[in-house]
Amino acid sequence: MSFTRRRFLQTSSAVAAGAASSQLLGIRQPFAQDTMNFKPEDGAELRLLRWSKFVQGDETLWMENTKKFTEATGVPVRVDNESWEDVRPKAAVAANVGSGPDIILGWFDDPHQYPDKLVPLTDLAEYLGNKYGGWYDAAQRYGKKGDEWIGLPLGASGARVVYRQKWVQEAGFETFPTDTQGFLDVAKKLKENGHPMGMALGHGVGDANGWLHTILWGFGGKMVDEENAVVLDSPETVAALEYVKELYQYFIPGTLSWLDPNNNKVFLAGELGATINGISIWYAAKNSDDPALQEMAKDIYHAQMPVGPVGKPTELHLFTQAMVFGYTKYPNAAKEYLRFMWEKEQYEPWQLAANGYISHPLAAYAENSVWTEIPKSEPYRDCVKNMLWNGYSGELGPASAATMADYIIVDMFAQAASGERSPKDAAKYAARRAERSYR
């Protein structure tokens, strides 16, 4: 029987509805397994490459859980860390040359660039999904190619508006606006008061891609339609570009070259009234030895990403998932390590230690105490649940991964904001770039 996209969506909707009903009724799915393990190969040892930390609790608990795995199985695991910008090219090289880390925590739809170079993880993903309330839609889109899981979603470094409450209130806003017009209004007032806003417009893997895709989709623009035809050169895209061009007037200087760490540093230096970021800024201030930063942490609050004229959330968050490469000598050990790390006994304490820095892809972890014990974490809880996916509204694959890796959307907005190109010309140029990948 052929498996069309429409049938996939119908099937997915039916499964999701059934799973939701079971959860509401407190009924366990009859095919759920409570335990599973993949017996590691004799003499197995693993090497994991992951992105470098922004939140110390993430790294601390990840390493503690890894040590627990080694104690339980006898399998040593070497963990290497790379800057966010370096993970994607290193993963691509590993796939192409056929050697490198056994497991890599990559970004977005990286597995779809080289699916034939990866170990299928369907049995593991289905086990975890059955046990922990099901995978959110975006997680399935990122992790699966057809019926096969080629990546194991870890979650997303969620993005929210991070702002200084006192300065926002001084600007005349009791709470932070949740729509794009209000967002523009508060940016203007903050700049007038000497507390400008600032978001990355450089090649930031997370920050730039996240907020700019959110704005593009919020105005109704998108890279491709459901048939993967490039539709970027549209009135909706131009409207989004004109909006960001106006917003950019109220930014602090320098954002055109900002990467992921820059807004953290500038915010903590007391130079920003608001930005869009993960929870890492507040976490750093709260846990600092500097009394001034500890005091700043009390004034840092988080708000939802702005909703555009389409009238509903259109968020993109920095999604990360594990890939096991086909050249590994120890595929069972690799899958057993991932199973261990994703189980509740390890995942929930890790998520709590990181203060919800990574929003979960499995529905059951919405009940993690991090969302109630740490009130400033709560706005990040549903990031993966509500997010769209890179390449929206088309299918994920080599083209969507390539256009993300080439920063086509980010460059388009940067060109329009800076005046390098008019909004109309920036949209046309970006569409031509995208068509090279979507041919």
From TrEMBL:
<dbReference type="InterPro" id="IPR050490">
    <property type="entry name" value="Bact_solute-bd_prot1"/>
</dbReference>
<comment type="similarity">
    <text>Belongs to the bacterial solute-binding protein 1 family.</text>
</comment>
<keyword id="KW-0813">Transport</keyword>
<dbReference type="InterPro" id="IPR006311">
    <property type="entry name" value="TAT_signal"/>
</dbReference>
<dbReference type="Pfam" id="PF13416">
    <property type="entry name" value="SBP_bac_8"/>
</dbReference>
<dbReference type="InterPro" id="IPR006059">
    <property type="entry name" value="SBP"/>
</dbReference>
<protein>
    <submittedName>
        <fullName>ABC transporter substrate-binding protein</fullName>
    </submittedName>
</protein>
<keyword id="KW-0732">Signal</keyword>
<keyword id="KW-0574">Periplasm</keyword>
<dbReference type="GO" id="GO:0042597">
    <property type="term" value="C:periplasmic space"/>
</dbReference>
